[in-house]
Design brief:
Blueprint lengths: L2 H23 L5 H18 L15 E2 L2 E7 L6 E4 L11 H4 L7 H12 L5 E8 L6 E10 L5 E8 L5 H9 L1
Antiparallel strand pairs: 1-2, 2-3, 2-6, 4-5, 5-6
């Protein structure tokens, strides 16, 4: 084989390897994706009220995308309670404080953070540990939460990122 053909074959392998890596990375939700999906879900719930929850109780293109999903909690009566979760429907009716037991803070504090962040003017981000979709081991998750106006609901979705800074994410959500 000539050196030109070897060089061409080598270049083709590098290009194909790069494309494969890019495709593998496309499967991760970005903070911008999360913000967009949560804001749309909050608008939908504000418009449809309780009837709109059905969208987020099952897996579909609206509630689950890439490696993320949209969930809904009720912040009525001072306690966060899961009212819709597309990937773990058994969480419906469960107090968030009893579900988020993986740290780094106590579940009660994380649950309160969900409601507090959700009621900020542009929403907010909360850090906690939770198993990835289909996994058992908890990892660091940061979720963006936003209240659905005129309802007791706060919508959330998140990403698993060990390095994301809440301050940076909050700035992104405020823009």
């Amino acid at each position: 084989m000539s050196s030109r053909r070897i060089a061409t074959a080598t270049l083709a392998l590098f290009v194909l390897a790069g494309i494969g890596t890019a495709r593998a990375q496309q499967g991760h939700a970005t903070p911008e994706d999360v913000i967009r999906k949560v804001r749309q879900a909050a608008r939908d719930l504000a418009e449809k009220g309780e009837a709109g929850l059905a969208t987020f109780t099952r897996m579909n293109a609206t509630s689950v995308w890439e490696d993320s999903y949209t969930f809904v909690v009720s912040c009525q009566g001072g306690q966060a309670v899961t009212v819709a979760h597309p990937t773990r429907p058994e969480l419906k009716g469960q107090p968030v404080a009893e579900v988020l037991t993986f740290g780094p803070q106590p579940g009660e504090r994380i649950a309160a953070g969900f409601c507090a962040a959700g009621h900020q003017p542009h929403g907010g981000w909360v850090e906690y540990n939770f198993p990835k979709l289909g996994g058992a081991q908890p990892g660091r998750k940061v979720s963006y939460l936003l209240a659905a106006p005129g309802t007791p609901y706060v919508v959330g979705a998140g990403i698993y990122d060990p390095a994301a800074k809440i301050e940076d994410l909050d700035k992104l959500a405020g823009d």
